Amino acid sequence: MSALLAANRLFVGQVAVVTGASSGVGEAIALGLAEHGADVVLIGRHIERLQAVATRAEGHGIKARCYQTELMQDASIAEMTESLRREFEKIDLLIHSAGVFRSGNTAVAPIADFDLQYSTNLRAPYLLTQSLLPLICETRGQIVFINSSAALSAKAGVGQYAATKAGLKAVANSLRQEVARDMRVLTVFLGSTATPMQEAISEMKGREYSPEHLIQPGDAAQTVISTLALPRTVELTELVLRPLVDPNAAVV
Fold first, then answer.
1. What values do phi and psi take at 164, rounded to 5?
2. Among 64, 196, 197, 209, whose CB has the most other CB atoms within 10 angstroms?
3. What values do phi and psi take at 54, rounded to 5?
4. Is 98 helix (H, G, I), strand (E, B) or coil?
5. What's the rounded Cα separation, in Å, for the pair 191 and 49?
């Protein structure tokens, strides 16, 4: 933990909404923000996992709420955002960490896989941002898009996934210019990270899963939280993180 964060609970009184909060980087960010005083709203599909994260978060003396949400369904997002508006007067931080991955060469990759990745990786964060933007603007808050290094360099077999992540990069870039006077927007391009998604990808490709060679979720979370804690006189717009030991691992 950085000296700055270790010495201060810089997010006391703030409300953080985190998607994909039941595991991986989303979970690590939610717990890190809770440690530093933020109330956390945990969004995901698996309510039991969310509740386990909420219990750990509440150990830091903050309020944690869980919303079982299907991000591919507009009605589910609308129901969740309406509940947020009723329960919380403001939102300070929105962290988009949910995502899915499917691989396949362009000639054979099922279009259904493309639809799934587009709906989850691009459309859902766009709609959720649009829904919560008025509340975040009121607090001059911050939005974080957890993206992938695939958005910067698409490899063979990941065209669908990379396209959705490149689209997410465009959304963040445009939004940043639109709300420059009201909030900060950060994109984080992650290389291979030791998460359940990466483990599934390794299994899918018949490759040994070696999490010790990958970015650790806690390290990614610390980097994000340190950036969010920067003085409001500066904006860091993009972060690119890659594994130090194995920089040639799959870029997801």
1. -65, -35
2. 64
3. -60, -40
4. coil
5. 25
Question: Six-digit token pair at 85?
Answer: 């508006």
3-state DSSP assignment of residue 227:
helix
Helix (H, G, I), strand (E, B) or coil at 40: strand
Residue 140 is which amino acid?
R
Helix (H) or strand (E) holding 76: helix 74-87
How far apart are alpha carbons 61 and 14 in whole angstroms? Answer: 13
CA dihedral 99, 114, 200, 245 (to 10 degrees): -70
Tell me the average pLDDT of the chain: 91
Number of residues that make up the chain: 252
Query: Which pLDDT tens digit goes with each residue over 90-116?
Result: 999 999 999 999 999 999 999 999 999
Cα–Cα distance measured from residue 83 to residue 42, given in angstroms and rounded to the nearest whole number: 13
3-state secondary structure of 44: strand
φ/ψ of 57, rounded to 5, equals -65, -40
CB 62, CB 37: distance < 8 Å = yes
Residue 208: φ, ψ to 5°: -65, 135
Higher pLDDT, 208 or 128: 128
List domains and CATH numbers for the chain.
Answer: 11-187+217-234 (3.40.50.720)
